[in-house]
Amino acid sequence: MFSHILVTGGAGFIGSNFVRTVLRTQPDVFVVNLDLLTYAGSLENLKELPSPDRYEFTKGDICDQALVEDILRRYKIDAVVHFAAESHVDRSILGPAAFVHTNILGTFSLLEAVRKVWLGERKADAGTVRYHHISTDEVFGSLTADAPAFEENTPYSPNSPYAASKASSDHLVRAYAHTYGLPITLTNCSNNYGPYQFPEKLIPLMILNALEGKPLPIYGDGKQIRDWLYVEDHCEAIWQVLQSGQTGESYNVGGNNQPTNLEIVDAICDILDELKPASPYRPHAGLKKSVADRPGHDRRYAMNINKIGLELGWQPKYALKEGLLKTVRWYLEHGNWIQAIRKQKEYQSWLDKNYTERVESKK
Ligand code: NAD
Ligand code: TYD
Questions:
Q1: Ranges of residues in the chain whose predicted pLDDT is under 70
Q2: CA-to-CA distance for 141 and 143, rounded, in angstroms?
Q3: What's the pLDDT tens digit per position in 294-309?
Q4: Could you tell me if the CB of 307 is within 6 A of ligand 2?
């Protein structure tokens, strides 16, 4: 239905997986990727793409409205899928300004560009264009142990600067739909994991640290609960919403699981014990180390995914155990990708900043 898609943030974790999925599965779609290549974005994530002739990369900022307008016109873009963001809660605690800038002002700038080109110049009909916004379960806040899972109409209650900036951008998107009639859809997804995830997030950080025999830092008691989704499942959900979702609607996306962080780390350690029998660090679970908790740490997220299941027939394909095994294997097989990131000065200084101070603050 849509043939020329602008993906923002397509050099990041989920965006690059989405670009790959679309190029692999949609032979009639042309993809333009706009990415600023911040510390989290890398062209290493976009090597050996299927059908590169249907793909164009532009290095640039979503806050640059003129650049976005030019892309919309030049490539006759009929759908925008907006991933670009600052995406890490811990970074948002140590430096919230970038989150306000990119996630709120960046989304605003993008919305202004599509409003001007699609609604103003092109006078596009609702069915012929779409702005799809990628959001998170974190906008809903934190759940107690036995509270029901978040639904699409659960009131927003974001707790971290990251979550507040994402909530803010979601509100702008809704307002543009309501006020200007911009055809939008929105997905709120739980924690993703899988290939190409930057190793500042829990799962890849634990894999990389365990491989080097470094401590596996568990914030607080490690009993926080997340709902984990294999990234390919997320990409398919987004595509399905883009194709068949109802304009103006939001859809929750999640993996239907509720492990604690400790259970996730133990599962990774067990997989590594099995796949690396000669490792001097076996059993890897012995590397776990309790460190100071994250300030304002959300205790539990859970997603009710009935709506997307009933309306669009989407279900996650990967069970957590299977997805984790695929993920650990991927990191073991992509040593060059890991080396490229380990070499980044910025990555090393992040590890020092987040973890050295965290351990010191426990003393
Ligand atoms: P990521 O940090 O891996 O990638 C973000 C990408 O955006 C990077 O390539 C970066 O270079 C790019 N970017 C940042 N600022 C930019 C700017 N001003 N202009 C253009 N590009 C810019 O993030 P991710 O984990 O792939 O998340 C993608 C989206 O999905 C985000 O909106 C995030 O909030 C949302 N989300 C993530 C998760 C998750 O578990 N990772 C879960 C739910 C929702
Ligand atoms: P993270 O991957 O940062 O995602 P989010 O904060 O968006 O859920 O963290 C997932 C969980 O793992 C979260 O409860 C914080 C915890 N965590 C640790 O215990 N240690 C770590 O080193 C990291 C990065 C996260």
A1: 359-363
A2: 7
A3: 999 999 999 999 999 9
A4: no
Cα 170 from Cα 188, distance rounded (Å): 9
- Domain of 313 in residue numbering reads as 4-196+228-258+297-317
Number of structural domains (the chain) is: 1
Q: Give me the percent of the chain exceeding a pLDDT of 90.
A: 97
Distance (Å) from CA 294 to ligand 2 centroid: 9
User: What CATH number should be reported for the domain holding residue 170?
Assistant: 3.40.50.720
> Which of 78, 86, 138, 233 is labelled catalytic?
138
Tell how strand 55-59 and strand 30-35 pair up.
Answer: parallel
- Distances from the Cα of 133 to the Cαs of 170, 289, 308, in angstroms? 8, 37, 15
- On whether residue 97 sits in a domain, the answer given is yes
* Contact of 317 with 233, CB cutoff 8 Å: yes
What span, in angstroms and rounded, lies between the C-alpha atoms of 199 and 213?
15
Is the pTM above the cut of 0.90?
A: yes
Ligand found nearest the CA of 160:
2
Q: Is 138 a catalytic residue?
A: yes
The pLDDT of residue 363: 40
Summarised one tens digit per residue, pLDDT across range 163-188 is 999 999 999 999 999 999 999 999 99
Catalytic annotation present for 162: yes
Task: Give strand ranges (E) for the chain.
Answer: 4-8, 30-35, 55-59, 79-82, 130-136, 184-189, 191-193, 216-219, 228-230, 250-253, 288-291
Residues shown for the chain:
363
Model confidence over 62-108: pLDDT tens digits? Answer: 999 999 999 999 999 999 999 999 999 999 999 999 999 999 999 99
